[in-house]
């Protein structure tokens, strides 16, 4: 099998249908997600709010095809991730998904622009074009000029988060998944990062899901959902 299914799919965003996820818990299983339904269209910015432990990161891990649910379907641009083997799932993730994890996983020794280009060495675009695109993306998230040549420790928390977002956008994903992007930032910087996510959702037509425990940051979202004990509801 090749990656033909993912690469030919129309961009329709993300859908979760009847998703249930459990983890081993001693003799039992802990239900982290229960019968979750979610559909996010291209260009839509959905926010999921919920307390710590409610299942937000689990939701993103399933949507990112990093965890397989016990039941239910995850569709990325209409492609059922559960029906794919490991290689095709990896290809789907690389070609269609942009992920900003809660823990910034920037590489300490690389400059901002290199954080993006290191992905390209796996993908094989022409180096000069890849660099131009990386610089353009960094500029579009507010990191211009000399800042692009700084290493993570020479950037502020907010700037590092911008690098993370630019990196997630580098592969032109259909779906952008963002876990607690503001947890390490003060309120104003956090609000700026959420504003940026709203902007990139419009500009890149991504189906964006941001999860957060901070209810103050939901104003820029097109839609707010609430996660409580693994259940997703539309009530804010
Ligand atoms: P949130 O991101 O909202 O804080 P999580 O998705 O991380 O919530 O966790 C949901 C529930 O699943 C919690 O009760 C948590 O302890 C549990 N959980 C998360 N990851 C694992 C894991 N790898 N193994 C077992 N339990 C887990
Ligand atoms: Mg979490």
UniProtKB/TrEMBL annotation:
Q: Which UniProt keywords apply?
A: ATP-binding, Nucleotide-binding, Transport
SMART domains named among the record's database cross-references: AAA
PROSITE patterns, per this entry? Answer: ABC_TRANSPORTER_1, ABC_TRANSPORTER_2
InterPro entries to which the protein is assigned, alphabetical: AAA+_ATPase (IPR003593), ABC_transporter-like_ATP-bd (IPR003439), ABC_transporter-like_CS (IPR017871), ABC_transpr_LolD-like (IPR015854), MacB-like_ATP-bd (IPR017911), P-loop_NTPase (IPR027417)
| Molecular-function GO terms, alphabetical | ATP binding; ATP hydrolysis activity; transmembrane transporter activity
Instruction: Please verify whether the record's keywords include Transport.
Output: yes
Give GO cellular component annotations, separated by semicolons: plasma membrane
Q: Which ranges carry the ABC transporter domain? A: 16-236
SUPFAM superfamilies associated with the record = P-loop containing nucleoside triphosphate hydrolases
Q: Which domain of life is it from?
A: Bacteria
| Protein name listed in UniProt | Putative ABC transporter ATP-binding protein
Whose protein is this, by species? Kitasatospora setae (strain ATCC 33774 / DSM 43861 / JCM 3304 / KCC A-0304 / NBRC 14216 / KM-6054)
């Amino acid at each position: 099998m090749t990656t033909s299914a993912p690469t030919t799919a129309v961009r329709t965003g993300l859908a979760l249908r009847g998703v249930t996820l459990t983890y081993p818990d001693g003799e039992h299983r802990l239900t982290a997600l229960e019968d979750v339904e979610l559909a996010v269209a291209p260009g839509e910015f959905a926010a999921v709010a919920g307390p710590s432990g409610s299942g937000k990161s689990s939701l993103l891990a399933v949507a990112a095809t990093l965890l397989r649910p016990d039941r239910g379907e995850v569709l990325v641009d209409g492609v059922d991730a559960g029906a794919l083997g490991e290689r095709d799932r990896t290809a789907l993730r690389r070609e269609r998904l942009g992920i900003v994890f809660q823990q910034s996983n920037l590489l300490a020794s690389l400059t901002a622009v290199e954080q993006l280009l290191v992905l390209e060495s796996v993908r094989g675009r022409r180096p000069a074009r890849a660099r131009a695109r990386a610089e353009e993306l960094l500029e579009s998230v507010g990191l211009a000029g000399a800042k692009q040549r700084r290493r993570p420790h020479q950037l502020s928390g907010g700037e590092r988060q911008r690098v993370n977002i630019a990196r997630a956008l580098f592969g032109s994903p259909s779906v952008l998944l963002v876990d607690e992007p503001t947890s390490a930032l003060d309120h104003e910087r956090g609000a700026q990062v959420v504003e940026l996510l709203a902007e990139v959702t419009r500009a890149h037509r991504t189906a964006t899901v941001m999860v957060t425990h901070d209810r103050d940051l939901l104003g820029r979202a097109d839609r707010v959902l609430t996660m409580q004990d693994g259940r997703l509801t539309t009530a804010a």
